[in-house]
Fold this sequence. Notes:
single chain, 158 residues, alpha+beta, 6 helices, globular, binds iron/sulfur cluster
Amino acid sequence: MTAKDPIDRRGLSRRFWERKPLAKLNQQEWEALCDGCGKCCLNKLEDADTGDVALTRVACRLLDDESCRCTQYDIRHQFVPECIVLTPKNLDEHAYWMPQTCAYRLLWEGKSLPEWHPLLTGTPKSVHDAGVSVQGWTVSEFETPEEDWEDHIIEEPI
Length: 158
Ligand code: SF4
Ligand code: SF4
């Protein structure tokens, strides 16, 4: 069974993301933009020469690939110190490696949210129904040595 969605999207202004710049969003609005796809929790391979980033299906050790959520979100830095806390201030720096369907990246690129986004459908299930989340298809980083990650590169969008 999928865990309850931890993102509170109640009481938000209608289509606030179209009326406010990212830097002006309050904390609840910012968090609500996350569609819960889990793709930013996949390990990435970056080409040192070209800077190209490839996503793999090898998931961070803390990702639950049924709910597509971090199992230790509040204390995750104790286990994964390098996990990024994305904010409006550091989005410029990180957008290039974010998944192509990520709402933060899409809005940063001046694009619209996709029709399956939970803010538009009213249900977090829509991201899974659209086949855009990592639900059920990751492999564990514990069981997958880093030298094999190249064999697990995925194409985007999925
Ligand atoms: S890729 Fe973006 S939308 Fe998907 S879980 Fe990560 S932050 Fe949320
Ligand atoms: S620590 Fe949690 S939020 Fe960070 S990459 Fe891993 S699963 Fe995702």
